[in-house]
Design goal:
CATH topology of the largest domain in chain B: Spore Coat Polysaccharide Biosynthesis Protein SpsA, Chain A
Helix content of chain B: 10-25%
Oligomer: heterodimer
Radius of gyration of chain B: 21 Å
CATH architecture of the largest domain in chain B: Alpha-Beta Complex
Number of strands of chain B: 26
Distance between the termini of chain A: 66 Å
CATH superfamily of the largest domain in chain B: Spore Coat Polysaccharide Biosynthesis Protein SpsA, Chain A
Radius of gyration of chain A: 22 Å
Largest sheet of chain A: 7 strands, mixed
Amino acid sequence: MYKKKECVAMLLAGGQGSRLYTLTEHVAKPAVPFGGKYRIIDFPLSNCVHSGIDTVGVLTQYQPLVLNEYIGNGQPWDLDRNYGGVMVLPPYQGKKGGDWYRGTANAIYQNLHFIRRYDPDYVLVLSGDHIYHMDYHQMLEAHKEKGADATIAVIEVPIEEASRFGIMNTDDQLRIVEFEEKPPKPKSNKASMGIYIFNTDVLTQYLIRDEADENSAKDFGKNIIPAMLRDGMKMYAHPFRGYWKDVGTLDSFWEANMDLLGDQPIFDLYGGKKIFSRNSARPPQMIGASARLSDSLITEGCEIHGEVTHSVLFGDVRIEPGAVVRDSILMGNISVEAGAVIEYAIIDSDCTIGAKAKVGKARAEGGKLTVVGAETEISPKQRVPDGVMVAAGSVEYKKEG
Amino acid sequence: MNAAGIIFSNLHDRHIPELTRVRTMASVPFACRYRLIDFALSNMVNSGISNISVITHNNYRSLMEHIGSGKDWDLARRSGGIQLLPPYITAHANSSNVLYSSRLDALKSISQTIHELREDYVVLSDCDVICNIDLEDVLRDHIAHNTDMTMVVKRLPVITDEEKSRVIFESDSEGRITDCNVRPQPGLREQNVGLNIWVITRTYLQRVVQDAIAHGYTSFTHDIVARNASRRNHRIYRFNGPYGDMSSLAGYFKESMALLRNHASWDALFNIAQRPIFTRVRNSPPTKYSDSARVKNCMIADGCRIEGTVENCIIFRGVRVSPNAVVKNSILFEDAYIGADADLNCVVADKNVVVRERVRLSGHPTLPFYIDKSTML
């Protein structure tokens, strides 16, 4: 017998994140490393734990190996529970055949039996590609107080950017009267954050109905939410104030990492509740006598003898004397050899940047973001021009032409 | 590896009274993020030992907190795993109803646990052995020579007074122990200094502990090693890697600072492939260095915010160094806060110390200034 849960979270983690290009070549977007020692999925998972939600289904599909291994039994998030905890839910073969997840709504539909076994009153639907601190419990309280059928978290965005989002038009009681997906002329600036709370029976009913509709894209934003609005269900917006960033593109991913820096960072890892992550056993950072550090985040296992400015370094990065790293993100296990210069770049894990190589061009000089995929070796004195993307696994990067 | 592990958590508490006032020697913080017991535990775990008992004595709250379920060392197991043995007085320990004071008394007090061991071999280790040693190799050597007991030793000169607490093992050309020498005379000659790591055949251990109870023996070195040397096969195993232990606060300071000076011994301790040193995870964010940070030759854990000048220091997790503060040649334990314009030199600050603005403090390498846990200056 399973214990009844008030609220079960369903975390959509199956997306490819194709606009992160080489960063998601071998890992799903939620498993992309972020902020020195985290992966993107740590943020929604930690938020769940801090909000008192101890049952989380993680829906995976694209490149699940790293994500599965990372989540494991959920111990780092205190989600290794006898009843509930975190559960990875891949697509599966059933008696009537099997199917991939054909959209966000279909993914949840295929796992309705997972939800049912905990008999929750509410289902929280999350996506695994945002960086933010949020107390879902407050949102749940608001949902209950309003007697809503569904509550959608919204954030106010600058009106000129509103046409990039799904926009919720509400009345003065915050009841949603209209939903417009990427409207050319937005009527409000309340953008959907992709965080929904549904009453379980309402959600079940709509998922079943949507599944039967052959013309449906099986998507929450495109199908489920509009259908519920059409039927006049009680749907409320829950305004969120604070940092929230979609890290779906290379530029926004870079920006979000840089938002962690500065004396008064835009997003403070030291403020608010702790973000949990799976830690490996690494020795402390060693900062050598010739090192120069400024405005940077540096993680255990690093050995720094060169100059690091305005950058985020993951574990096991080695910067040799005379090497310079500026405005960059260096993921785990990277060697930057003596005299190499990295400017405004993202270097994925397990790379070597050869001595006196130059990657990217200074941001101040109008350089464009440069990306080096995982397991790449840049040979000594090689130049990787700015704006270039080196595919993962390039044994040796050679300038074309 | 068909062996169980036993670790003594308190035997050397009296060596560093400052640091062990509120904790065991086993839980003395070391090298930014470790506790001393992490080395003994990791050595055992990396050698495939998954049934480990830790004999405690007093002050073991911090040790229990550190070990938790044993998960961080992969020792949260259904069978075996790690168990802390809280002190209790048994009829076997002694007749005066006091807690053990010697290694052999400690073993006698857990004779029941020893009796229930099923592994063929037992590795005994003190908690202050700072080294990265392949115990499988020690065991192979032990089995190959059909040994009853193998002592791990290192060739070292015994020079200072402090090192008098060491035990020297004399051996013949085959490595068989012929004698042991407690409180050796200082001299420059390199000798086989015992590292307080042993491999013992389980049945032999059970026998000597029973024997010690029957005869009221109290000294492991005198009553077991020396007394049986001629009749049993006791051998030495030579370890050549870097090894540290300490018998005073100055020794602790020296041993810590040596890590900053000698990168080779740092690598031999922490950077051996497949042999990481494990410790408790704290989930700190990465360390943040601000624009005004000036950091040179330091070892720094995660979770720190460095805005001042830090040179030749060992900085534990969650430490804050404010702008214009200058910290040199110092060791700052977890969550220390150093205010603006403070100036510290040769200081050992225990956990949660707050040093307010403009405070100036200096010790000397031979007499580091110690700031007690949770003190505000």
